[in-house]
Amino acid sequence: MIVRAVIIDDERKNVDNISALLSTYCPQVEVVGAALDAPSGRQMILQMQPQLVFLDIQMPGESGFDMLRSLERYNFEVIFVTAYDKYGIQAVKFAAVDYLLKPVNIAELQLAVDKVIARLQYKNQNLQLENLIQLLQQQHHKEEHRIALPVLKETRFVYTREIIRCEASNNYSRFFLTDGEVLLVSRPIFEYEEILKDYGFVRCHQSHLVNKKFIKSWVKDNGQFLLLLDGIQVPISRNKKDLLAKVLRSNS
């Protein structure tokens, strides 16, 4: 599991030190941003949406605690980093995963990161279970069903109604969403054909699975293809024509 992290510390040398230690001893942590004060840190969190924040407590002007209090959501884990032991108890009360004293001890850093990964994996398992329960409870409300898509660094839960199409890419599958986002999933397309066939999706080609809600027309010139609402042309295999015609006639 790769964890996206942000470092917030008012001293550049501390930022560089933590970043170097993580790179060497905690390769499962990817530093995606850093900030040298609380206002910049707040903006960095909102922009990068990290899973983990290494946060200095004592910073000029606005402390790390002040910055946290100003946020509306806490959808990330925190490891406090401080040179003052007296802040340790306060950090624990603030529900930190852990806190590290400067200079950072490598073993303590690795232990703190391991705790974060365990908590994130637990949260992800809970999301998967929650999605399963919702599916079982809402069998007749397919528009509200979500599919779990394991991408590189997380598992995304996407409503089936938001998927325009799926395209095979070797042993991977690319999901094209209504907001323009493309998700690369490390599973073959045939697995998703079975999952999505009851949600109005049709396999029109060996490499293409399409949500029929987004089909504008079936063009029978130049080899035949589906024209989607977003202007994309999807080819139709000869051996898929009968199945495609049957699905498009269906109201399911």
Query: Which bin fits the share of residues in helices?
Result: 25-40%
Total domain modules: 2
CATH level-two architecture of the largest domain: 3-Layer(aba) Sandwich
The H-and-E topology, N to C, reads as EHEHEHEHEHEEEEEHEEEEEH
Strand order of the largest sheet: 2-1-3-4-5
Helix and strand content put the structural class at alpha/beta
Rg, Å, rounded = 24 Å
How many beta-strand segments? 15
Distance between the termini: 38 Å
Total helices: the number is 7
The general outline is elongated
**Which spans have pLDDT < 50 for at least 5 consecutive residues?**
none
> Strand fraction band?
25-35%
- Whole-number average pLDDT? 85
Summarize the biggest pleated sheet. 5 strands, parallel
Kindly provide the name of the CATH class of the largest domain: Alpha Beta
Within CATH, the superfamily of the largest domain carries the name Response regulator
Q: Quaternary status of these chains? A: single chain
CATH topology category name of the largest domain: Rossmann fold
Structure write-up:
The protein is an alpha/beta fold and 252 residues long. The chain has two domains: 3-123, Rossmann fold (3-Layer(aba) Sandwich); 142-249, OB fold (Dihydrolipoamide Acetyltransferase, E2P) (Beta Barrel), CATH 2.40.50.1020. 35% of the residues lie in helices and 30% in strands. The chain is built from seven helices and 15 strands. It has helices at 12-25, 38-48, 64-69, 87-93, 106-137, 189-196, 241-249; strands spanning 3-8, 29-35, 52-56, 77-82, 98-101, 146-150, 155-159, 163-169, 172-177, 182-185, 201-205, 208-211, 215-219, 225-228, 233-235. The strands form four sheets. Strands 2-1-3-4-5 form a five-stranded parallel β-sheet, sandwiched between helices. The longest helix is centred in the middle third of the chain and has 32 residues, at 106-137. The protein is elongated and about 70 Å long. The mean pLDDT is 85.
